[in-house]
Amino acid sequence: MRALIQRVQQAKVVVNEQTVAEIQHGLLVFIGIAKTDSLDIAQKLLDKVFKYRIFEDQNGKMGWNVSQAQGNVLLVSQFTLMANTQKGLRPDFGPAMPPSEAKQLYDALVNYAHQNYSGVQTGIFGADMKVHLINDGPVTFNLEYNEL
């Protein structure tokens, strides 16, 4: 499972010209789900996202996590994060979990997020989403969790 996280001043998701989610100050988190992922893996990765210290603390260092910085989180499913790009000029989506299974896992992850963290918004799984953001920094990290 992969999470591409971006520290943002603001972010929103638009579907069919309607804003379906929007945050000010926080993290935009793109989630990629692999065939081998499980709810346990998803929960561990999300916990890491919420604990990851990439916001400025009182000393001007990256010492605070999103909660300490009083930020929000926007979760967006993005299967393209799981593409194998090592060969050729076309991405191979073979490592990605099939959509029906991925939706179940993503929905369970969203449910876990709402139960354990405040300030969580989400995009719509499988929708043609337009994601608008103002990256703060820019600050972007790729987090992975692999259970071997």
From TrEMBL:
Its main localization is: cytoplasm
Query: EC annotation?
Result: 3.1.1.96, 3.1.1.-
State the UniProt keywords alphabetically. Answer: Cytoplasm, Hydrolase, RNA-binding, tRNA-binding
A GO biological-process term: D-amino acid catabolic process
Q: Cellular component per GO? A: cytoplasm
The UniProt transmembrane annotation reads: none
What top-level branch of life does the organism fall under?
Answer: Bacteria
Positions the record marks as coiled coil are none
Single Gene Ontology MF annotation = Gly-tRNA(Ala) deacylase activity
Tell me yes or no: is Membrane among this UniProt entry's keywords: no
Catalytically driven reaction(s): a D-aminoacyl-tRNA + H2O = a tRNA + a D-alpha-amino acid + H(+); glycyl-tRNA(Ala) + H2O = tRNA(Ala) + glycine + H(+)
Subcellular location(s) of the protein: Cytoplasm
Where's the motif Gly-cisPro motif, important for rejection of L-amino acids? 137-138
- Note the SUPFAM superfamilies from the entry: DTD-like
Q: Which EC class, in a word?
A: hydrolase
Pfam families attached here?
Tyr_Deacylase
Entry function? An aminoacyl-tRNA editing enzyme that deacylates mischarged D-aminoacyl-tRNAs. Also deacylates mischarged glycyl-tRNA(Ala), protecting cells against glycine mischarging by AlaRS. Acts via tRNA-based rather than protein-based catalysis; rejects L-amino acids rather than detecting D-amino acids in the active site. By recycling D-aminoacyl-tRNA to D-amino acids and free tRNA molecules, this enzyme counteracts the toxicity associated with the formation of D-aminoacyl-tRNA entities in vivo and helps enforce protein L-homochirality.
Q: Give the PANTHER family listed for this entry.
A: D-AMINOACYL-TRNA DEACYLASE 1, D-TYROSYL-TRNA TYR DEACYLASE
Q: How does it assemble?
A: Homodimer.
The record comments on the domains as follows:
A Gly-cisPro motif from one monomer fits into the active site of the other monomer to allow specific chiral rejection of L-amino acids.
Would you identify the family this protein belongs to, as annotated? Answer: Belongs to the DTD family.
Q: State what protein this is by name.
A: D-aminoacyl-tRNA deacylase
Source gene? dtd
